[in-house]
Amino acid sequence: MFKPTQIAVALGLAGLFAAGAANAQVIKIDGSSTVYPITEAVAEEFQKAKKNAIKVTVGISGTGGGFKKFCRGETDFSNASRPITAKEMEDCKAAGVQYVEMPVAFDALTIVINPKNTFLKQVTVEEMKKLWEPAAQGTVTKWSQVNPAWPDAPVKLFGAGADSGTFEYFTEAMVGKAKSSRGDYTASEDDNVLVQGVSRDVNAIGYFGYAYYAENTAKLKALPVVSPKTGKAVEPSAANVENGTYQPLSRPIFVYVKAASLDKPEVKEFIEFYMKHGAKLTKEVKYVPLPAAAYTGNLDHVAKKKLGTVFGGKNEIGITIEELMKREAKM
Questions:
Q1: What is d(CA 167, CA 171) in angstroms, rounded to the nearest whole number?
Q2: CATH no. of 4-106+253-330
Q3: C-alpha to C-alpha distance for 162 and 68, rounded to whole angstroms
Q4: Is 219 helix (H, G, I), strand (E, B) or coil?
Q5: In this predicted model, what pLDDT tens digit does every residue of 38-95 receive, in sequence order?
Q6: CB contact at 8 A, 274 and 320
Q7: 79 near 35, Cβ under 8 Å?
Q8: Tens digit of pLDDT for each residue in 196-235?
Q9: How many Å is the Cα radius of gyration of the chain?
Q10: pTM above 0.85?
Q11: 110-235, what's its fold?
Q12: CA nearest 302: which of 276, 281, 279?
C-alpha cells in the first residue's frame, strides 16, 4: 500500500515529466510512406541522442498529402518519393512557404507477387501498361488477357493511393502519364496494407518502395523488370540501382525543409544529424545511400539557403545517381 506522501511525490514527479514533455521542442514531419523508414530511423536516433528534449513526429499521408500540409505551413519537413510538382510549387509560393530540397537516398520501386505464383518470371513495361492503364479498368481482369502465355486466372491488384508519390512515379514510368491508372484496385498510402494483400493471394500483384519488400522477403517475390534501354530483365537491388541498370523504376527520394523552420536551432540540429547518419541508416532500412558529397551538399544548400528544386516541377523517369549528383552540384 502506498502512503499519501509517496502518492503526492509520484504525482508531483508525473506533473514535472508532463510539463517537461509539454515544453519539449517539436519538429513536425509528414509525407511519403517510402521515405518514412529512413526519416523515422533518423528521428528515433536523434531523440535518443537528445534524451527526448526534442520531439520529432513523423506522419504518413503520402507525398501529395505531405506537401499539402507543408505548403499550408503545418510541418517543418516533407518526406517525398518524387520531386515537388509545379502545382505544389505554386501552392507553397501563394502561402509564402520557401524550401530547400534535399535528396537523401535512391529507391528501387519494386513490383511484387505472391511467392506461390509460378508463372511470372519477369515483366515488361508494355505488360504493366496493359495491366494498369485506365482502359484496363473492368476489362483486363485475368492474367491471360495481359499475356496469352499466362493462366486464365483472376488478377488481384494492389497499389499506392492517389496521394502517393510512388503512385505518380509508377504510373508515369509504366503507363506513360503520371496518375493515369485504372481505379479498380486495392489502394493504400500504408505500404504494409499492400504487403499483406499480396502475401495472402496467389493471383496478386502490387508495387511499393524496396524497403517494404526487403522487410518481407518470406512473404513476397520481387519481379525483375525488362529494361527498355537494354532489353534485359533486371531485379531490384542496391547494386542494380547503383550501377544504373534497374530501369525505369530506380528513383531518388527526398526530404524538403521549410526555409522559415531553419531559424529554429532544433531543426538545424536535426538536419545536421540526418546528413551525418543518414547514409548508415538508409542502408539499414534497405535503401541505397547517396555518395557522401550529396549529404555535405545538402548541408551547404541549407547553410546558404539555396531555395527551390533542381527538377523544375516535374518527375524525371530513369535518372541515375550520377546524373542527380551532377545536377545537385550546379544548384
A1: 6
A2: 3.40.190.10
A3: 13
A4: coil
A5: 999 999 999 999 999 999 999 999 999 999 999 999 999 999 999 999 999 999 999 9
A6: no
A7: yes
A8: 999 999 999 999 999 999 999 999 999 999 999 999 999 9
A9: 22
A10: yes
A11: D-Maltodextrin-Binding Protein; domain 2 (3.40.190)
A12: 276
